[in-house]
Amino acid sequence: MPATLDQLSARQIAAGVASGAFSAVEVAQAALDAIAERDADTQAFLQVSEDLALAAAARVDALRAAGRALPPLAGVPVAFKDNMNLLGTRTTCASHMLERYESPFTATCVQRLLDAGATPLGKLNMDEFAFGSTTDSSAFHPTNNPWGLALVPGGSSGGSAAAVAAGEVTLALGSDTGGSIRQPASLCGVVGMKPTYGVVSRYGVVAFGSSLDQVGPLGRRVEDVALALNALVAGGRDPRDSTSQACEQDFIAHLDDPIEGRHVGIIPSLLEAPGLSAEVRVAMRLAAERLEAQGAHIVEVSLPNMASAIAAYYVIAPCEAFSNLARFDGVRYGYQEPGCATLAKQTSLSRARGFDQEAKRRQMLGAYLLSSGVYEQYYLPAQKVRTLITADYQRAFERVDAILMPTSPTVAWEHGAISDPAALYLADVFTISSNIAGNCAISVPVCLGSESGLPIGAQLQGPSFADARLLTFARALERSCSMEGLVAPGFAGRGGELA
Asked: N or C: lower Cβ tally within 10 Å for the chain?
């Protein structure tokens, strides 16, 4: 019986290509077939790069034919959130502002996966400029959750999570400013990791909040995510990104180490947080029990300033967004309003019509918060809160190796069910604090909700630059919850067949 692409892990695909069980071109074609069969439902892609994919796969096959050693992700299908430049594609940030913007170069994070032999399938949908938690704010179309097409996939990396959950690609890259990898990973039942700030280069990634943004991988298995991280750090520190840090870790070497005797922190007050669903509460208790059954010690810890994280984030992030998006003025690049008599008129109308509602809202909020008199009242206190949150984490990690908490307060909800922006912001209530502090965090599927039947992810957070150790805990949780390699019902086996 021939296998379908979604049945194979990244390691199995690379091994199959290396052994000659199938060629990289055959894998690429299977991925293209899966996208053709499934993406009309998920709408995860904004652009499919068929020519780039087949050319990259042919280069891998040529290496094998020449008897050369193959790179670690040889032939593995991958796609990229559309805020990452890839030469030969557009980089639109799901906005009319950049609708026709052709990538002039390839982002470092993208290039490192290509150097590792991965096959680039294209660019994935997102909330406009990464502003959102649903992927409904894309200027082009919403993305649907493969677990229910009437449901949101989360955001802002919703296209990345949906493409992986539907088996269209094996790996995807997303960006995470306040939970934008982990929250959609939880809602779509996949693994999504935000590495420590600085571990992955952001050169060539369109900035939202420069002190908060981090690029990370999504996959259906913890091992796939670990393999992707190995590729992302393989080139060392990127001198083109001033925040990039050298990372010597091997994310695979200790993946299956036992966690017996290690300490996992829980925060009891979070299980009583307003808005936390009963299903998620049960899932968190299950996750703690599964880790404890493997010998981990469950320890109560406190993050007393975590309750202020959302308030601090929605001061810091809009201020940085206002600064970063000021460059889109309709003069140098981006949408340009025609027929304007003056430069001022052209800039004003280009920005008014190039940006959609949420992008305007966040930039206007940032402009206000940075204005004279307001800056001292809000921005400076928010930075002080950031220092307090970071210190809380440092104290907690003196006692524990990782902290377990929910990823999202609920399972996925229907498109349009939440219209109040403030209510949508609360979807990131459990994820934002790790961006504020810059530490590493990962969401791992642990169960299906007993009432909804939808996936629920548990979040593990670790100290800065303890990413490899965090993956060991994530793998232990995955191993005990039997959710590894999950493809959304109705999508498994549709298209993507390998001989």
From this structure: N
Q: Is 180 a catalytic residue?
A: yes
Q: Name residue, tokens 């032999």.
A: 117
Catalytic residue among 81, 103, 186, 408: 81
Class of domain 5-262+474-481: alpha beta
Distance CA(355)–CA(335), nearest Å, equals 9
Candidates 95, 137, 180, 201; catalytic one: 180
Which pLDDT belongs to residue 499? 67
180, 157 Cβ separation under 8 angstroms: yes
Q: Give the H/E segment covering residue 405.
A: strand 402-406
Indicate whether 1 pLDDT > 50.
no
Whether 180 and 408 have beta carbons less than 8 Å apart is answered as no
CA 79 to chain centre: 12
Q: Is the pLDDT of residue 182 over 50?
A: yes
77, containing H or E segment: strand 77-81
Work out the number of other CB atoms within 10 angstroms of the CB of residue 299.
14
| Active-site entry in 49, 137, 156, 175 | 156
Based on its alpha-carbon atoms, the radius of gyration of the chain, rounded to whole angstroms, reads: 21
By DSSP bridging, strand 402-406 and strand 455-462 are: antiparallel
Q: What angle do CA 423, 424, 427 make, to 5 degrees?
A: 100
Question: What whole-number distance in Å separates Cα of residue 410 and Cα of residue 476?
Answer: 23
Residue 238 has pLDDT above 70, yes or no: yes
- Within 13 Å and on the Cβ side, how many CA atoms surround 43? 18
| pTM recorded for the entire structure | 0.97
Domain span(s) for CATH 3.90.1300.10 in the chain: 5-262+474-481
Question: Do the beta carbons of residue 205 and residue 84 sit within 8 Å?
Answer: yes
**Which tokens go with 244?**
């990039």
**Euclidean distance between CA atoms 288 and 294, whole angstroms:** 10
Q: Identify the band that residue 2 occupies on the pLDDT scale cut at 50, 70 and 90.
A: low
**Neighbour tally for 386: CB within 10 Å:** 24
Q: Is 156 a catalytic residue?
A: yes
d(CA 493, CA 182): 26
pLDDT reported for residue 333: 81
Specify whether the CB–CB gap between 213 and 244 falls below 8 A: no
pLDDT at 72: 98
93 CB-side CA count, 13 A: 23
Contact (CB, 8 A) for 53 and 97: no
Separation in Å, CA 260 to CA 249, 256, 411, 479 = 21, 12, 31, 14
Handedness of CA 371, 373, 379, 382 (dihedral sign): negative
Scan for tokens 């949420």, then name that residue: 358
**What's the rounded Cα separation, in Å, for the pair 314 and 425?**
9
417-449: pLDDT as tens digits:
998 888 899 999 999 999 999 999 999 999 999
